[in-house]
Amino acid sequence: MHKDIVLGPKMTLDEFVEVARCGSKVEFSEEYAGRVEKTRRLVDGWAEEGGVMYCITTGFGVLCTKTISKEENAKLQRNIILTHSVSVGEPLSIEQTRAVMLMVLQNAGQDYSGIRLEVLEMYRQFLNLGLTPFAPQEGSVGYLNIEAHIALVLIGKGKAYIKGELLPAREALDKIGLKPIELSSKEGLVLVKKPGLNSGLMIPQYSQAGILNDMRILCHPATIDNIPTCGNQEDYVSMGYNACKKGILVAEKLEYILAIELLSVYQAHQFIQEGLEPGTVTKAVLEEIKSKVPVMEEDMYLHPYIEELKDIIHSGRIIDLVEEKVGKLV
Question: Which residues are annotated as catalytic?
């Protein structure tokens, strides 16, 4: 029987493993809850005063001088989560995702986050009731995109595991008796630790950068030394098989980079000068994308469309469309 882990004081590595790997339940100490509620009262007070307060009554980055309404603020927090959820590929393991959620609770429960206790309570219940968000692990330059995929489930988006079954977020929440929550001032920023109202395609480019860096790592030599086999009779082993495995991974990652490139081209094409038409081949490709991807009018959840375009690339559909117009390429 695993003991409950109480957050508030410093957490040991053994306690961390107990929650992430062994499924121990998490409780908030009075000290923890008190800290969170105290800083949240400050945020609410500043928001009510209506003064200029970065990230609370204003936008982020270059929009730091723009005051935003409460309604815009709620939308901004939601958009931060939606736009950063652009990681791709295989998901983190259950243990890894639980570890990330636990660290969010530990970090946000300090004296300076300003997040509401009820938001952190949702993550606590995820850990205690066995809900694990689906968080793709490829294409993040840090931890931002992965944290965003986890936070998606809070607002009823994305997917999550319940007892090994992958479900739409709302269905998973319903199974454990929870409902989606609406984020308030500063909370999207706390959960993702990054600003982006109507950031367009900025964050998918982050994903491309992260994926490209992975590809460069995989392009390093497959071996830095050699190991003889067969009692030293075979004294040269090329490790060619390992190089092939890396090559496959590079090709898979390239498909995601190209998928984001196609997404970007399609969205950019909406701004083409009136009266200008794309070439025959380009038009055919754009029409195919149009059947799968909506035009971006504001920040939106792009991950499903990136996966869709990656599958189109992998299937050879893009090449088929091109060859229908210009003949066989090779």
Answer: 54
CA angle 253, 254, 260 (to 5 degrees): 95
pLDDT single digits (tens) 107-134: 988 877 889 999 999 999 999 999 999 9
- Residue 266, judged by CB atoms within 10 A of its CB (0-12, 13-18, 19+), counts as buried
Spatial contact of 119 and 232, defined as CB atoms under 8 Å apart:
no
Domains located in the chain, CATH noted:
5-192 (1.10.275.10), 205-326 (1.20.200.10)
Residue 306: partners with Cβ closer than 8 Å, 6 or more residues away: 86, 88, 204, 207, 256, 259, 260, 263
- For residue 14, what are the CA distances in angstroms to 3, 19, 23, 273? 12, 9, 12, 61
Per-residue pLDDT, 194:
55
- The tens digit of pLDDT for each residue in 188-199 reads 878 886 556 567
Token pair 């009510």 is at which residue? 48
β 5-7/26-28 pair status: parallel
pTM of the model: 0.85
| Among 24, 195, 189, 197, CA closest to 112 | 189
Q: How many CA atoms lie within 13 A of 277 on its CB side?
A: 6
